[in-house]
Amino acid sequence: MGFPVNRPRRLRRNETMRRLVRENHLRVEDLVYPLFVTQGQGFRKEIESMPGVAQLSVDLAVEEAQKAAELGIPAVILFGIPAYKDETGSSAWAEDEAVQRAVREIKKTVPQLLVITDVCLCEYTSHGHCGLLQGQEVANDPTLELLARTALSHARAGADIVAPSDMMDGRVAAIRTMLDHHGYQDVAIMSYAVKYASAYYGPFREVAESAPQFGDRKAYQMDPANSREALKEVALDLEEGADIVMVKPALAYMDIIRQVKDAVVVPVAAYNVSGEYTMIKAAARLGWIDEKRIVLETMLGFKRAGADIILTYHALDVAKWLKEGY
């Protein structure tokens, strides 16, 4: 029966009623906070295109990790800016590089905090691509060994979760095999299973110093026009041993988050990427939007789409706002 008997506004009439019938909930436990770590001591380099985000030396990254833990955020994900780059990205698996050092120090200082490490070569190669080159093509199979070596070095340092973001075919199986062979069966894999060749990554490439020196990444990252392919990538990564699957970017791909969520029984992560973050920050600086309301609405949109885990540069602010009872 319709109006006047059926009045949906009855369940919206005050905040207590709205909370009672709310379908989706954003929690601080849903958040992962990205950190960019590099060498040095007391070093902080602010990134103009990402206000509030910086390259941090290990000591300052540990302080940021402590802030996250104090706010109840359960995990950080680490990206490295290495001391040197070469054709093979060999600094990616160096035991004394920034990510490996940061993992050890964070686990020592904040042992309850989960540490996730990004596993890719783009930050470490002189050419900026995510694998070994043959001519100007990224060679898939030879790259797998190097990704596995990198993941192993992170596990040895104490990482709880490794997160391959390279989009090479077969990399989850290569990493799982390497970890298991060396006794790290309990280290989980969060695969960037669905990673699109997106324009939203621009500011990230500034902070991570990972822009390709030639060409683009369309030969290995996904075509933004495709959705069925996302389910294929997810299925393959799960067969190979992924424990968590990720969709990246998030904002323009909520339909993909929902499709993946409906197709799997593992946790689904969504990466609220740098371009999405920067657009909100820029508009807020100009006074065009209410930053807090926009950010929280966006995060809730990811949850409604099906994300169990949200990687976001807004994490500290979101955690504070949630504690204030938004």
Specify the number of helices: 11
CATH topology: TIM Barrel
Terminal CA distance: 35 Å
- Give start-end ranges of low-pLDDT stretches: none
Main sheet?
8 strands, parallel, barrel
Category by helix and strand content: alpha/beta
- Average pLDDT, rounded to a whole number, is 94
The name of the CATH architecture is Alpha-Beta Barrel
Q: What is the CATH C level class, in words?
A: Alpha Beta
Strand percent estimate: 15-25%
Q: What is the tally of beta strands?
A: 12
Q: What spatial order of strands do you see in the largest sheet?
A: 1-4-5-8-9-10-11-12
Identify the overall geometry.
globular
CATH level-four homologous superfamily name: Aldolase class I
Helix content: 25-40%
Rg over alpha carbons: 20 Å
The SSE string, one letter per element, is HEEEHEHEEEHEHEHHEHEHHEH
Tally of distinct domains: 1
